[in-house]
Amino acid sequence: MKRLMISSFALILAAGSALAAAPKTAEGTGGAMLTNAEGMTLYTFDKDTKGVSNCDADCLANWPAAVADAGDKAEGDFAIIDRADGTKQWTYKGMPLYTFVKDTAAGEVKGDGLKDVWHVARP
């Protein structure tokens, strides 16, 4: 019985941690937007295609991918893709999601409209 309780508790903790990493909707500048679990704004990149990230190397230095953990589960419009580098990345309606290194606090949107190819991800 004790072993069953410990296993059930571990399963509940694992499920909770997977949900904590999933993107979410928050109110911000310009209305509803997508954020990561820490409240940092998520962005889309016009040069991506559904299910494929075209941001790598130098691009990722400024626009880190919204990385999904091994235990994360896709739900609704949120899915997880395999990146060319072997990591997993969150998508929204098929479009890969990123944060921006110059956003230093939750809710900042310093990357919105940058180079006319980066946009706040909105539901």
Automatic annotation (TrEMBL):
GO terms for biological process: alkane catabolic process. InterPro entries: Lipoprotein_repeat (IPR005297), UCP029720 (IPR014558). It comes from the Bacteria. It holds the Pfam family Lipoprotein_15. Transmembrane segments: none annotated. Keywords: Signal. Residues 1-20 form the signal peptide. PANTHER family: BLL4220 PROTEIN (PTHR39335). This is Lipoprotein with Yx(FWY)xxD motif. It comes from Paracoccus suum. The lineage of its organism: Bacteria, Pseudomonadati, Pseudomonadota, Alphaproteobacteria, Rhodobacterales.
